[in-house]
Design brief:
- By secondary structure, the protein is mainly alpha-helical.
- The protein contains five helices and no strands.
- Helix 3 packs parallel to helix 5 and helix 4 runs antiparallel to helix 5.
- The chain is rod-shaped, with a radius of gyration of 48 Å.
- It starts with a helix and ends with a helix.
Length: about 200
Amino acid sequence: MKTSKSEIVYLILSILMVALAGSVYFLFGNRNNATNSSVVTKQVSTEQSTHSESKELSAAKAAIEALEANPSQENLTAAQEAIKSVKDDVKKTELQIRIDTVSAELTNETAAEEAVKAAENSQTTVNVTAAQETVDALTNNSKKAELQARLDAVSKAIASQASAVTNYDTTNTYSYSNTNSSTYSNQAPSTYTSETIQQEQ
């Protein structure tokens, strides 16, 4: 059975079409695969970055919570170090505000402690007033109560000293008054007796 020329031409054209379609598939199919591979790689990279960021953020939050629960210079330094790793600027700013709040309170506590010590060492009303202002500025209730108790003890000591001085002055004045009265009483009869004797003479 002989094949006609037209059938041969159709066969050749069909082969060429299949070859062309295969070439197009391999060219564009590989590009899509490369693009898909790139997208998948980026997604994995983003997920890893997010996971890492979440881990750093969690560590920073934990450090700040420890600082808020137990304010100290050591915990303040640890919290400040922890937020350096946080990449999200918004969250980093929020965490820094919390750290700054505790830092300000620690500064106020140090100032109040020094003022109360000064009042204890030199018990004057001026020192007590100055110390009271610093204690009033505190927000940590337990520290505030502790320093207030010490300051109240100083105030009582000052009041007690003032009362002792007042009692001493009152006692001395009374004594002095009695002494003068006694002198007058002793002198009066003597004078009276002398005059009486002169008149009688």
